[in-house]
Write a structure and sequence with these properties.
alpha/beta; six-stranded antiparallel sheet; globular; 437 residues
Length: 437
Amino acid sequence: MSDHPRRATLTASDQRQLIRGWIEDELASETRRRMTVGSSPLSRADEAQVVRAIESTIWGLGRLQALLDLPDVEDIHITGSDTPLLRLRDGAVRRAAEPVADSDDELIAQLQYIAAHHGASERAFSSAQPMLNMQLPDGSRLAALRDVVPRPTVTIRRHRLVDVTLDNLLHVGTISVGIALFLRALVHARRNVLITGPPSVGKTTLLRALAREISPGERFATLETEYELDLHRLPRAPALLYAMQARPGSTETDSSTGLRAGEVSLSQLLHQTLRMSVTRVVVGEVRGAEALPILKAMTAGMPGSMCTLHASSAGDALERLIVAALEGAGPNCSDSYITRLAATGIDYVVHMRHMTHPALGGAGRFVAEIAEVTDVNEVGAIALNRIFAAPSGGTDPRGRFQMLPQRRDAFDESGVPLTFLHRPDVDQWPEPGRRAW
């Protein structure tokens, strides 16, 4: 359609109508041809399938679109022209009905087209840039590799809960009554929060729910390597939100910065927020050099900031954060300085788990621990108070109220005293079987 003389003046709706008319004309021609040679015409179901396939190729993501339209799929794993593996929301894994490409080269060509036309900005996928990370139009996250693996490989992670609140997470069993109230209090009292857990445990979803608690009149920014939080796309998106996305840049290097030409890093975006009267930042995921500027921002004028990090426990998360900050700091920063900065910058660590357990009524994601960062102890390690933690004995892995925070002034000053922690239902979780996530 690119050479159609009216294309530039047609609206998206007009273009779709024009395409649909062309498809219907072609199907009518095919029906006449079949009748001429004595063959059976296409059934209505076959015609509808042809229409969907053509429209998916033009407007959607080609043969990938059918997998993204499946309601119970969470993860899609593709290796070349093999039939994709699908991980369902209940944890089960099954094969798709058919491959999404007839050859490995065709899959690469599909990915190149998607990277160029279906992201927030054009991205390359070539032998020079063999890694592709982007958000798809429906909010799913795509990660792909070529050349550095035997065959092109794709993983697509779908986010089932986007317009989500703490009440929603309480309903599906991710948090208890007391944890929901405490998390809400953390946001309103402007405590800095680090959400941790293994991949696919729900860290981004919980971060979305926490960000929804930020006052509508507050100016804040979200920083991500690829858009995933999607707060700016919600029907009731905050008016004072700056949604920022890093940019990978080209294969050429800018000698003045040491970055790829056109590259914009999370660290650069974070420094820019300091000039934009932003009161707090929400970072989708801390992976590397951005750890140090994030900690500095948390300790110097951006209380109430939040981020996520892959880790196996609250203590492990802080160690990983310190290592990442040290790697980005250079030789002039000592371990003790970064450790002190982390202890000052992070107020609470919220750790999540995903497992199958009788107490859950099957498989589920849940908050297992909320730890208060108190200080650096005599051996130079960060000390933690477990406000919520799983009880000993292994009867239930979900977090239960253990103790009051050591530092409570910020809650009282913000008008959110922690008296709710004495409620009889503080450890009430939804009944098994209610979870839908």
